Amino acid sequence: MKFSSARLEAVYSIPVASAEVSLIISNTTESVLAVQGEGRFLGANGRYPIDRLLKPHETRVVELPPGLVKITKAGAISLSHNGGAGALLAKIHIQEPGKGFSATVNFSDPSKGKTTQYHGAGLRLGSINGKSLAPSVVVRNLSGTPTTVTGRVVFATEIGGEGKVNISRTTLNPGEIKLLDVSHPRLLRSDISTAGLELEYEGAPGSVIADALSITSDGNQVFGLPLKDPKGGMSSTGGYPWFIGDSSSTVVFIKNTTDEPQFFHLDVVYPGGKWGSNLRTLAPHQTFSLDIREIRDAQEKGVDGITIPQNADVGHVYWSSRSLQTKTLIGRAETVDFAVAISSTYECQCPCAGSYADSTIEPAGVNGFVGDTQQFIAREQNYSCFGGTATWYNVPNNWVSFIAVSS
Prior knowledge:
Elements: E1 8-13, E2 20-27, E3 33-41, E4 47-54, E5 59-63, H1 66-70, E6 74-81, E7 88-96, E8 101-106, E9 117-121, E10 127-128, E11 131-141, E12 147-157, E13 162-172, E14 177-180, E15 192-201, E16 208-216, E17 222-225, E18 237-243, E19 248-256, E20 262-270, E21 273-282, E22 287-291, H2 292-297, E23 314-321, E24 329-337, E25 342-346, E26 355-362, E27 373-383, E28 393-402
Antiparallel strand pairs: 1-6, 2-5, 2-7, 3-4, 3-6, 7-8, 9-15, 10-11, 11-14, 11-16, 12-13, 12-15, 16-17, 18-23, 19-22, 19-24, 20-21, 20-23, 24-25, 26-27, 27-28
């Protein structure tokens, strides 16, 4: 039986004791699918072989051995199969019902790596309901040679300050799994408004995989942090659903992965209208966040003075970079309910960034006397990748006209 040369890889952390780890695999085809692989465990010599035959469209749950899971704080799973691209869907589920801990981990194809970096937008820090949050970051070296991993947490404060905490250099032997030390007193401060995680490694693109999450001290509230190769996506765009419930809200995170300021435009679409954010500037390596419930409840005005109706509780968010460069920003939306300690993430991208639709200058005309001045504002509107128009936004550059006559 011939197995595909491409492999699916995942690494995960277990930040709570007595957790259970399950592998969920699905056959998307009309044929029988053979799946082979293994589970490996941090600090344990044992390996768990995986050898399953999936009937057409069958989904199976494979429980990892509790004995091996119990003695470790992280692990990894490698899978291969005899089908074509997309024939196998796989996900890892980790849970500890007694503490309320539940997390999922996606698989990736290392052969699709574009850079030797990972970025995560919206690392949760501080505390939730009086319980402190701690990040957990795990990495694995997939290559046959040793490598090193470095990283940093880049954050902004509520009063507009910026900060950075470096992660110590970590050496990984071939196949090795390690948890990174991301503990630092500066990450416990209560005035951090947004944060992002950045990792860098030596070797070939895709030769290291990583996963990250934040968890409260009681193990109940978990926030997954998807880590992205900054050049691996389709475009610097996002399109996500948003929801507001009795105690829930959706927060949008957008991260600048470059060393230069970047611009983007964001719309919150609700039944019957759009709330436009104007053009935003995002400093190098910084993360932007927008809590939709907060701007709705505060009746914060958008660029055209529009507010989101108080009874609006569902819609979608669209954002796009405004840059000649490609793949400079990453983003996601996270719907969170702190009262019941659940969260979910959406990471949909559009195939292409927004494109020019129309422009204007305001005011359109002015009367005055010789020597008078008038400031004009340039405004622009874009098409989305699917042809719809976004809200108008102000272009950063302004013009001043001097009224004069010639003899």
